[in-house]
C-alpha cells in the first residue's frame, strides 16, 4: 500500500478539498515507457522530496493558498482502465473550482487530465515542455503510448505549443509543419535565448502546462526514461514558466516522466522544487490572481 504522503509534508497542514487552491493528484501510471522504467515511482519520490522544500520560494509562500494531496490513483490495469480514474479525479478537482496538479507517471496521464479540462473549459491550449514531440499516431502497437499523448490531444482540436523539443521522427516533423503547430525548440533557445519569448497572440487565454521532466537538460535532470542532451537549464525554465503565467490563465499543470534514481536524491528535489515553483509563479501572476480570486501575496 502506498504510504500517506502530502505535498510539503508536516510543514503544511493537510488542506481539505474546499480549502486548498492546489489539488495535487499522484498518478503513478507506467505501462508504455520505451527505454528505462521507473516513472511509477515518480509521484512518491516527488512528495517525499517536497518535505525538504522551503515554504518561502524566494518571493512568497505559495502553500499559503492551500495544498490538498489526493490519495494515489489506482493505476493497475491498461490505459483503458486507468485513464478514466485519472479523468474522474481531475474532474472532481475542477468541480470545486480548484487547480489540478498531476504528478506522473508516464506522459500518457496528461491525456486524461486534458479530457476532464475540456469538459470544464470551452477553450484552452496545452503548453508542452518536452524533449520529444510525442506526436506519433501509434507507437509499439498502441495509441496510448507516452509517445502519442500530444497527438491524442491534437485530435481533440486543442491548440498546442511545444517548448524544448529536440527529438522527433521525420513523420512528426512533417505533422508539425502540416498542422502549423507552434514551437520553441531547444536549438532555437540555444541560438536566441528565452528573453524574447512570448506565446502567439492568438493562443488561447487559458492554458494547461504539461511538463515532461526530460525537457530539462540531462545534466540537471538525468532521472527520466529517455533523456536527450541539449535541454533547458533551470533558469531558462523558470523564465519561461513565469512569462507564461504572467500572460495566460493557468487552469492546471502536471509534472511527468520523472523516474527517480536511488543514488541521486537531488533529482527528486529538483522535480519537487519545479512543481512548487510553478505554484508560486501562478500565485504571483496578476491575471491568475484575478481569475482565481487570490488575495495579496
TrEMBL record:
Entries under Pfam families matching the protein: Arginase
Highest taxon above the source species: Bacteria
Molecular function GO labels: agmatinase activity; metal ion binding
Enzyme class: hydrolase
UniProt cross-references to SUPFAM superfamilies, sorted A to Z: Arginase/deacetylase
Xref: Gene3D superfamilies: Ureohydrolase domain
Cofactor: Mn(2+)
Family: Belongs to the arginase family. Agmatinase subfamily.
Protein name: Agmatinase
Species lineage: Bacteria, Pseudomonadati, Thermodesulfobacteriota, Desulfobulbia, Desulfobulbales
Amino acid at each position: 500500500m502506498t504510504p500517506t504522503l502530502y505535498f510539503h509534508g508536516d510543514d503544511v497542514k493537510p488542506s481539505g478539498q474546499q480549502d486548498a487552491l492546489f489539488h495535487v493528484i499522484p498518478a503513478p501510471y507506467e505501462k508504455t515507457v520505451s527505454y528505462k522504467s521507473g516513472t511509477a515511482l515518480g509521484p512518491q519520490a516527488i512528495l517525499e522530496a517536497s518535505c525538504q522544500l522551503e515554504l518561502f520560494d524566494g518571493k512568497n509562500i505559495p502553500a499559503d493558498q492551500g495544498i490538498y494531496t489526493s490519495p494515489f490513483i489506482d493505476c493497475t490495469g491498461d490505459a483503458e482502465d486507468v485513464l478514466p480514474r485519472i479523468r474522474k479525479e481531475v474532474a472532481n478537482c475542477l468541480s470545486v473550482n480548484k487547480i489540478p496538479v498531476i504528478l506522473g507517471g508516464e506522459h500518457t496521464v496528461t491525456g486524461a487530465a486534458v479530457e476532464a479540462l475540456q469538459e470544464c473549459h470551452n477553450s484552452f491550449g496545452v503548453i508542452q515542455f518536452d524533449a520529444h514531440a510525442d506526436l506519433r499516431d501509434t507507437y509499439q502497437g498502441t495509441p496510448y503510448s507516452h509517445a502519442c499523448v500530444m497527438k491524442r490531444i491534437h485530435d481533440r482540436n486543442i491548440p498546442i505549443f511545444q517548448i524544448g523539443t529536440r527529438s522527433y521522427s521525420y513523420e512528426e516533423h512533417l505533422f508539425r509543419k502540416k498542422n502549423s503547430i507552434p514551437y520553441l525548440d531547444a536549438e532555437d533557445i540555444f541560438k536566441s535565448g528565452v528573453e524574447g519569448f512570448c506565446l502567439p497572440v492568438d493562443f488561447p487565454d487559458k492554458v494547461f502546462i504539461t511538463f515532461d521532466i526530460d525537457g530539462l537538460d540531462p545534466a540537471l535532470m538525468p532521472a527520466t526514461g529517455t533523456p536527450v542532451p541539449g535541454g533547458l537549464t533551470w533558469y531558462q525554465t523558470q523564465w519561461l514558466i513565469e512569462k507564461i503565467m504572467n500572460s495566460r490563465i493557468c487552469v492546471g499543470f502536471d509534472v511527468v516522466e520523472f523516474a527517480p534514481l536511488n543514488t541521486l536524491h537531488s533529482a527528486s528535489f529538483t522535480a519537487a522544487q519545479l512543481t512548487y515553483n510553478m505554484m508560486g509563479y501562478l500565485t504571483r501572476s496578476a491575471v491568475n490572481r484575478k481569475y482565481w480570486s487570490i488575495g495579496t501575496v
